Every structure is written in C-alpha cells, then in structure tokens.
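Protocol step 4 of 5: obtain the predicted structure for the target chain.
Materials: sequence only (see below). No template structures provided, no constraints applied. The aim of this step is simply to have a reference model before the mutagenesis design in step 5. Sequence pasted as it appears in the construct record:
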Amino acid sequence: MVDNHGLLPTKAIREEYALGIVMLFPSLKDPYSKKGYEHFYDAASSTGYISWRLKTVQRKARQGSALPPNGSTDLSPGGGPDFQRTVNVERQLDGDACQGAMSLLNHTTDNQPQLIFQKMRETFQHRQNLVNDPGRSVDILSTFPRFLDTKGLVDQDFTLLFGDETSSNLLQKWDVYFKPNVIKEAKQLTQTPELRRLVQSAESPTGSDLNEPTTYDQEMASLLLLLHLLPPPLGGPKSPKISASDAVERLVVFHKSCCSLEEHLRNQQGRQPYLLAVGRQKSKIDSFYIAMDKHLIP
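Step 4 output (structure tokens):
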C-alpha cells in the first residue's frame, strides 16, 4: 500500500485493502461485524490493524528511517511551521528606523490604512525574526496590535512570505480542479449523516438557499470535507486521536451575529487558533475571524 499510494493513503484505499484481505483469506473475515473487515480497517472510526500499522511506518519515517523504495511521499525538510524561509522583501527597516515605524504603527489612527499597510510591510523582516524566535513569537500581537483592527494585514504578510503566485495558486485552482476532486473522493467514504450534509452542501449551486440552517455554504462545506479525507493526527499518551467531526469543530466555530463576541472570547477554552464564523446561520456567514489567545484577527 505504501509503495503504491505513499504514506498517507486515503480512507477509500485503506478500506479497499481491508476488503481485499478478507477476500483473499476468507478465514480472516469477522462473522460478527457488518462488513467483515472492520478489524483491519473501519472507515467510520479510522481504526483497525491497517491504521495502526500505517502509524508505525509514519513514525519511523519521521525518525529518519529509510522510506520504501517506491514511496511517493517526500518527507525531506521543506516546510512546516518551524521551517525558516528565505525572504527577500525590498525596503525593510532595521534598528532605530524599525523601532520608529513600530511606534508610529501603535499611534496611527484607524483612518490611515495606507500608512498602516506601508509600515507593516517595512517591518515584515523584523516580524519574521520574532516569529522564528520561540521565546518572542508569543508577543507578536502585543508588538504589532494593528493585526487586531486592520483587515488584510495577515494576507499581506502571507503574500510577502510566499510571493504573489504561490499565495493565489490555491484560489485559482480550487473551483476548477481541487473542489470537484475533493467532493468526488468524499463520496467514496463511508457515509455518515454529517458527511452527507457536507457533500450535499458542497454540491449545491452557488447562492442557493439551503434548507438546513446548521450546514455551512458551498465553499466552506467543500473545505471541511478535507478533514474527512485527511488522516487524523497521530495520537499519543497526551494527545489522543480525534475524529473528523471533532476536527471540524476545532477548526471552525460558528457564532451567531446577535451574540457578544467579547463573551465568546471570555469563555474560550484551549490554546489552538481557530476560525470564528460570524453570521445569522451557518449557511449565511457575514465575516470570519482568526481566534487566537483570546483575540480576534479580522
């Protein structure tokens, strides 16, 4: 399986191999289970011998063990949150000039967006140095509080870090290539009520009124389908495996527009960032925020 499909085969592939095992060796079939091969792989819970074995192979690969000769997954260091990318942005400030720009940012009024974007651009390299410093990265929002009141600054930093072509690549290909294939693969999974609702919403025409107010619109539903397709994170003694449904709730949290955002932040639990979707109902989201450390980033 790893030779042909890499270290992260889809649920459909895993289930196909589990079925193949009991077809080749009928004596291994479980007569008391629904399909007879759930002990090898159960798509509903992503458990079974195949899942356990894949975790072992993935763990050894991360520890530096040799990959299978035909393995299709490249695990060489080339990304991730700890990867320090080389950034070449013109007109970057340092020293006293950088400190002066940061002071100006903290005292500039909201009605000067052009100046805010300019000074945030000129201090980008200094901000990257903070991000890559484990002891100072937690101070980003207090050092650059304009992230909290100026929409578009995160997008500007992302573009400066990855370039115009890379930053727009996903959006350009999503509707034409990625989304149809995500929906197609999701239909091959074992269907649960939640998965069926997401597929139905993802296939609905743009702008159509959904009858189910608890389902996200077409674009968000198609993105959330990825959480059902991607394998769950490897669990450990302190980080038990979570289901796809739990992953959805940890990635996007719906908040009714008539309720207080401040109260939501006060009741926030956990430290992982998430998207806060604000609107009248899930199918009609008015705005999104990144919720992090009891702050909202527009």
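Step 4 remarks: The two ends are 43 Å apart (CA to CA). Residues 95-154 form one domain.
Proceed to step 5.
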